[in-house]
UniProtKB/TrEMBL annotation, chain A:
<feature type="transmembrane region" description="Helical">
    <location>
        <begin position="302"/>
        <end position="323"/>
    </location>
</feature>
<keyword id="KW-0472">Membrane</keyword>
<feature type="transmembrane region" description="Helical">
    <location>
        <begin position="199"/>
        <end position="220"/>
    </location>
</feature>
<feature type="transmembrane region" description="Helical">
    <location>
        <begin position="276"/>
        <end position="295"/>
    </location>
</feature>
<dbReference type="GO" id="GO:0005886">
    <property type="term" value="C:plasma membrane"/>
</dbReference>
<feature type="transmembrane region" description="Helical">
    <location>
        <begin position="329"/>
        <end position="348"/>
    </location>
</feature>
<feature type="transmembrane region" description="Helical">
    <location>
        <begin position="12"/>
        <end position="33"/>
    </location>
</feature>
<keyword id="KW-0812">Transmembrane</keyword>
<keyword id="KW-1133">Transmembrane helix</keyword>
UniProtKB/TrEMBL annotation, chain B:
<dbReference type="InterPro" id="IPR017871">
    <property type="entry name" value="ABC_transporter-like_CS"/>
</dbReference>
<keyword id="KW-0762">Sugar transport</keyword>
<dbReference type="InterPro" id="IPR003593">
    <property type="entry name" value="AAA+_ATPase"/>
</dbReference>
<protein>
    <submittedName>
        <fullName>Putative ABC transporter ATP-binding protein YufO</fullName>
    </submittedName>
</protein>
<keyword id="KW-0547">Nucleotide-binding</keyword>
<feature type="domain" description="ABC transporter">
    <location>
        <begin position="264"/>
        <end position="511"/>
    </location>
</feature>
<dbReference type="GO" id="GO:0005524">
    <property type="term" value="F:ATP binding"/>
</dbReference>
<keyword id="KW-1278">Translocase</keyword>
<dbReference type="GO" id="GO:0005886">
    <property type="term" value="C:plasma membrane"/>
</dbReference>
Amino acid sequence: MDKMPRWADVFLIPLISLLLAAGLSALVILAIGENPWAAVKMMVSGALGSTYGWGYTLYYTTNFIFTGLAVAVAYHARLFNIGGEGQAMLGGLGVALACLYLPLPHWLLALPVAAIGAALFGAAWALIPAYLQAKRGSHIVITTIMFNFIAAGLLNYLLVNLLRPVGSMDPATDKFPEGTHLPTLHDLLAPIGIEFSKAAPANVTFVVALLACLAVWLLLWRTRLGYEIRAFGHSEPAAVYAGINPVKITMIAMLISGGLAGLMAVNNVMGEAERLVLNAVEGAGFIGIAVALMGRNHPFGVLIAALLFGFLYQGGAELALWTSIPRELIVVIQALVILFTGALDHMVRMPLERIFLSLRKGA
Amino acid sequence: MAAPDAAKAPAIELRGISKSFGPVQANKDISIRVMPGTIHGIIGENGAGKSTLMSILYGFYKADSGEVFINGTKTNITDSQAAIAAGIGMVFQHFKLVPNFTVLENVILGAEDGALLRPSLAKARKELTALAKEYELNVDPDSVVEDLSVGHQQRVEILKALYRRAEILILDEPTGVLTPAEADHLFRILENLRREGKTIILITHKLREIMEITDTVSVMRRGEMTATVKTAETSPEHLAELMVGRKVLLRVDKVPAAPGAQILEVENLQVVDSSGVQRLKGIDLDIRAGEILGIAGVAGNGQSELLEVLGGMREAKGSIRLNGQPLPLSGAGADASARRQLGIAHVPEDRHREGLILDFHAWENVAFGYHRDEKYQRGLFMDNDALRQDTQAKMAKFDVRPPDCWLSAKSFSGGNQQKIVVAREIERNPDLLLIGQPTRGVDIGAIEFIHEQIIALRDQGKAILLVSVELDEIFALSDRIAVMFDGQIMGFRDPATTDEKELGLMMAGITDTRDPVSQEASQHG
């Protein structure tokens, strides 16, 4: 018998966690002598008050959807992929190589080609940890986090020594050719008469991210592969009993996960920067863990959680820009949200379960 | 309160204990009195609330209402420390021992007298020697627990309780993992303890044990205490009826087997596990169509590995032929789905670990293992509608309750979970059915039904390999019995001409002394 209704598990717990995090953040802001209410208003207007704000919020959201989905897919096979950061970095390399070295005259062609490059490189970066886990039992958490560092080192080397244009002092690739420019939301919405900010980086990749949510949902709950991934995630002995090959499922789930993380690069490298720079991922791979946790590893939950974190990112940036609340405090607020929605989940869950149980008994 | 000058106060008295977990009422207004120096049995099906009641007595759960009296004094047992202080000791079904500690170290664990171990160990050694003499509780105090047999480990648990001055001993399904001889020894220990005035509560689902050793017995059904009777004044049939709430056939009706063609031939099957231990040491057996071969043995003597190899879950060396065709024993063709395609169905020993995905809906479980079948596919996707229809049909046929295909597997009772697994495997109409512990943790009503299904499959001319640690079940179903010990088959017997005593000796590894002719005769009984 479930201890509480599903809606409470899916909506009430994250909501309460969020309110607790917000309350504590407010106290912190008070403590440094600022007005928390003014800060909230600033965040909301900065992130959601204009199409410019939305443009940034959705841009960040897109990043987090991909990295969140990556964690979620692996989670269903009971694999904790915390290598999204590195896989997204390598995805960036895939995008850069495709955009720089393949003849891509139009974005309609460039988008799928670059996406394939991103997914392939991201998946490749997950391949070795996946193999080590499946064949040798090396823990995926350890290997993927080590691969984040290797990815950073590799990209550093490549950008400084091989991909940097001659004469440039900047460890970054050349700007991608004009044909690979992805349409921004402004470009997409203008023809249908919606005025969207020109300056914001949100682009067509957001639509790809929404499609990815749908695709992951179909994969997990409608296909045989998804069925096998979930069965394996729930019980490995049962999977063996049913003739599901653990090695194969571990590999496939991690490759899909790495591929999704890699896809993030289409948004930040191709859609925004239009060249590959050092540290392009900016921690989105790690945020993906919190997004997946908060989204209960469900693609639609991931979408909503990614929106929330997009809002926090953009709102936080505005806060740092316009108030004397230091940049570091924004990180504190984001960390509190992660702490409460992720790590302290049970703190909210336990009392809530008890309340529901006593309610049911009363009824 | 008990009158001070009346006869002795009960060692344990529970008055009106109730406990619910959310909407589930696990214990409803339960009252018992257990007199000192007696053995009191508590019997009931899985989920009847026996374990909950004992957990309340041992301080793991807090009762919603009701009172506990120990020796006539109202006692508030808040945790296991309080229970120990009140003189209650508990021997769990799954032992709570540290495997790489010695017996002595395990006994003093949590009951050390000070920061230094030496004095505690010396004291415990002295006491253990005394206890061993008094109650036939012989265990070498210096051996490491993981090297001991299960029966000896259980004695360590009892010693632990006695060392803590337990006057009341609760044993939860203590014979589940013992050979008949070990169980007999345990009962002798319990009788010694009773003679010394200890009070014992024995929780079991085996009617035979209740009849054999208890003075009084309480029957639980669906959280309620349905009856408390003197053991001498009742019968197994009567107790079974009290447990289930209706008349139950304790014997299975079946016609003699009519074995046909050879279905399965196993030769010199060997398995070495990942830690290098040889689990199967050359198994030879065969099963014919229309025959049930029962494998008896204490758990952990290679039966699980045998099922796993035949079911494609484990690689092995040797040879297996199905309908005369050799099966690959390693590599790609040796996995479980390959075996299923060849007509081997498998009801695994542990339905929670292997047979079901507990968090999946019933309809997701009903094709588990057969989910690659063409009829469940629709283009790129799985045909979930077909799965659900299939589930409803199977649930109706096997009387799974509640017949709701959207419930998750964990929401069903043990018996209904097992019916889902058995339905899935039997309905495939396999040539060979592997079935391990078919009725473990299954209520008596469902046991009857599952046994009937197994017999019906046999009568359709299918071969069945049955593995069970319940000798009663082996006797009730098998047409031939093989006994396994230490990865080997000790011999084959005809159920009509053997008895529990002989099988018990074979299960303990004592090679049979009968002449080889009669063994030959019973080969294909």
